[in-house]
Structure prediction request, 216 residues.
Amino acid sequence: MYWLLDFDDTIASGPMTWALDHAIPRLIAEHRLRYTQSQLDSAVLRAQQRSNQEFDLLPIVRDFFTEMNWSPELQDRLINDVLNGYQPELFPEVSAFFERLRTAQHQIIIVSNNNRAPKLAKMLNIEQQVVGIYTPKMFSDCQPKPQRGLWDAVIIKHQDIADVGAVMIGDDPWSDGEFADNCGLECWIVDRLNRYQTLYKQKSYRWCSSLLDVAI
Prediction:
């Protein structure tokens, strides 16, 4: 079987997770920003949904600050902190999960909207553990997930996939989940921070909090 894995926030921490773990708490502490946890959770959920559907992050950040009632003068500070400080890190369970797949003689493919995914995979020493890394920029007229263009590229490159089957694993329901829907694939959503609990009954994906919870 083939396993299609998203990159950002599925295999390695992406800018959104880094911002939640580092940049936003630092901004709150340094400027003593007021908020409630429910307010922050709702604003983050909406921002994340939009970030998987829009490519211009500036209006997303602006609306996030408006919803939080924070000064717009701090927007550039947050953006610069993420741009200058973010470094991807593999999630702790990735090595063990990859080993489980190899032991089962399954193949791993990365399908990512992040056009830097091949470079980052090499930097994180996982390039040799996968049979393919595919991003929209690698193909003419290929639209990002959730459009099915990356799937069409995969089935051309790996023609036995129709015979052995494939499963999609991602970290959000909007790009990864809907991508799986558009490709007719079973889908697991890894919700490490419990951001999507309100969506569990609305979306028919298989939800888990770690890659090691995925049934192989």
Observations:
- The mean pLDDT is 93.
- The chain has two domains: 2-12+90-213, 15-85.
- The radius of gyration is 18 Å.
- The CA atoms of residues 201 and 207 lie 10 Å apart.
